[in-house]
Amino acid sequence: MATQGLLDGPRPPYYDGLKGRTMAHLFEYMADKFEDKEAMGWRDVHKVEKKPTNPEERAKTWITYELSDYNWISYRAVKAYADRVGLGLTHHGLQKDDCVMIFASCFSQSMTIVTAYDSMDENSIQFILGQAEPKAIFADANTLKVVSKLMKKGNQGIKAIVYTGQDWEVSEHIEILERIANRQFELIHIDELKKTKVGSNSGNESTGKGKNKASETEEEPDLHAVVKTVFPDPEDVACIMYTSGSTGAPKGAQLTHGNLMAAIGSASAMVGDDLEKDTDVLISYLPMAHVLEFVISHFVVSMGCRLGFARARTLMDDAVAPKAGSGKTKGLGDLKALRPTLMAGVPTIWERIRKGILAEVNKMSFPLRTVFFAALSTKWAIVQATGSENIVTNMIDSMVFSKAKELVGGRLRLTLTGGAGISDETHRFLSMVMCYVIAGYGLTEVCGVAAVTMPKMGHRLRTVGPPAPSLELKLVNVPDTEYTGDNDMGEIWFRGPAVMKGYFKLEEETQKVMTGDGWFKTGDIGVMNPDGTLSIKDRVKNMVKLSHGEYVALEKVEAIYRDSKDIKNICIIADSGCPCLLAVVEPAHAGASEKDMLKIIKEQAKSASLSKSETIQGVVVDDEDWSSNGFMTSSGKVKRREVRKAHAKVIDELWKKF
């Protein structure tokens, strides 16, 4: 696609009038072009406490959340809000190139954003604070608890902690922060920060009360007043994005303004024509610390589409309380309230949605279930034969799949899966039942956009599409394997405007993955297809050669096993030279025995035509919730080392049987 050279930023026809190649220029361009058009939306949250109706029952309170309809703010107001926040930070002593942790409203003053996931453990957050030395921390109700614990251990260098949220969400942790002896930081609610006046020479004084929001009686700032933007250079670091990786301490990828703009330019070149700028709405529920969410959200908004913020826990109706007096048992989840047309997610999210739809299908009568699966097979056969959807597939959608579509809002027309490989079965199912699924491939180190499939390619499995036009690619031999560049296979290396500057303060780690002439070694094994598209086989470190000489791609096989409705998560355990595969499994239903789970696994292997070497021979069952016990990254990848460490003794005993 890069026939005229590698893209180093967004280009016409989508970005006429863009004056520079930095994120600050992009924000200015959006505000000027789209002005009063709705840009970003959110739902207000109200805590609902429910007590037992029977006075004889044990005293207990259940807390759920009542959510408002979506509120919207214009492009011009978003820019003004971000400018005010940036200005407020400068009045609290922050300067150009200072680091600001977690939140993303600092581009207008050339400050560097440092990201961290709220799912990271305290040691990882402490490591990031020590390495990046941020001058300010943005926190919300979820992260304030960890922030307060860490500040008690030492807060040198932190000038401000800016927080969001309502009083009932944050007051407890604000009080803890206020009581810290000899604290050097101010506590500021973001609504106070944005009230900094243009031309003011002093910052806001902290109330010391952890106030919920700026008083409604206070004069609101003039959002049309001009705040001088401190424009960075394309080579300046915009973001140090820390990976919540599956092994070791987090590494901070230094992404420059030029890197991010190149990635956004690639996204627009590949799928810009597929967006309907006046009507498309993207639902944003992944953390902004995730490179996929960060780049996709900025790209979609830069194209003039709307962005609706949501929470993973309130996507569906079950977690939302009904509005008082409505007489309903459930409220509207974010998907039904927003009714998005665009959605990005990681494979674990899509696998859960597929299993949720199948659970509803299995409640149907036998004749209706038969019709559903017959329609699924028929529609797939049609789109493979014709290359696109047509009047017949549209009829199948309206007659058979309409109820399933309503579970995700009823209007989805494009989704993106990334972060890890998705299984063929899940990809095919959701493509037919829900909407077109774009398969994306990217890493934090290349700003998340390395390759994507496109709707004009038709429904395709086992490919992530052509490489992004901001990157050049080559495949390098993987020693002692069949993956060689001569066979259009090998480890994927990238070079180009979207490749990171390097890992922050980790020169040795940078040298491990970057060559002297600018190539980034991804560690992923890829295959170039005859049509110029790329397919991902596995990670180099996850290729295991068993004792009888056959190679097994662990992540690929795991995705197949996760297709089983009885398996929620799975981690295959194997080393080179091992006689067979073992696995630790989080079952979909608590109480499953090793014997039952092994039977389920072998049935899944047989139905998927896996080879003997790919068939798991021993199982350890772990009923804990992997999403909250440290076994999963925030992008849904299994932390193989952590799982293995937790079950080391049982695994060692199991190996002895083989």
Automatic annotation (TrEMBL):
Superkingdom of origin: Eukaryota
Region feature (Disordered): 198-222
Keyword ATP-binding: yes
Ranges of Polar residues composition bias in the record: 198-209
Record-level GO BP terms: long-chain fatty-acyl-CoA metabolic process
Domain AMP-dependent synthetase/ligase residue range list: 61-504
One annotated Gene Ontology cellular component of this protein: plasma membrane
UniProt xrefs under SUPFAM superfamilies: Acetyl-CoA synthetase-like (SSF56801)
Keyword Ribonucleoprotein assigned: no
Single GO MF descriptor: ATP binding
Secretion signal, residue range per the UniProt entry: none
Reaction(s) catalysed (UniProt annotation): a long-chain fatty acid + ATP + CoA = a long-chain fatty acyl-CoA + AMP + diphosphate
InterPro entries: AMP-binding_CS (IPR020845), AMP-dep_synth/lig_dom (IPR000873), ANL_N_sf (IPR042099)
Keywords, sorted A to Z: ATP-binding, Ligase, Nucleotide-binding
Gene3D superfamilies assigned to the protein according to its UniProt record, in alphabetical order: N-terminal domain of ligase-like
PANTHER family linked: ACYL-COA SYNTHETASE LONG-CHAIN, ISOFORM J, LONG-CHAIN-FATTY-ACID--COA LIGASE
Family according to the record: Belongs to the ATP-dependent AMP-binding enzyme family.
This protein's name: Long-chain fatty acid-CoA ligase
Organism annotation: Lunasporangiospora selenospora
Lineage: Eukaryota, Fungi, Fungi incertae sedis, Mucoromycota, Mortierellomycotina
